Q: What sequence folds into this?
């Protein structure tokens, strides 16, 4: 059983910063992909950032230059540093982990709310 637990969401003013963290636990010896999605009210869940085990990253165009994803393979953690936040970044942020122990399953965290006030 794999569990992902997120932390770090909250309320921040536009232009501010937040750091999200996510820790994966369970019977894990390898995680290929980790990252973050978000879902705003009335919208579909969208990819924010992803990072491979080797450190290759990919970002949504809307967050490039403002958000930075990082991970610690030894600790099975992934983080999202969010700077210059905008009201349109308001959403529930979900971390995910895929390719655990060479399996195709994807696991999700419970979500953490990020609210950016104007």
A:
């Amino acid at each position: 059983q794999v569990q992902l637990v997120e932390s770090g969401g909250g309320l921040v003013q536009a232009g501010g910063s937040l750091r999200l963290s996510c820790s994966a636990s369970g019977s894990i010896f390898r995680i290929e992909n980790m990252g973050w999605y978000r879902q705003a009210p009335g919208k579909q869940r969208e990819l924010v950032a992803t990072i491979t085990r080797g450190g290759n990253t990919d970002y949504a165009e809307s967050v490039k230059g403002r958000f930075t994803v990082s991970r610690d393979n030894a600790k099975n953690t992934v983080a999202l540093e969010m700077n210059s936040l905008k009201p349109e970044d308001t959403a529930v942020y979900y971390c995910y982990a895929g390719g655990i122990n060479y399996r195709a399953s994807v696991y999700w965290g419970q979500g953490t709310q990020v609210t950016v006030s104007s």
Notes: Residues 3 and 25 are 5 Å apart (CA to CA).
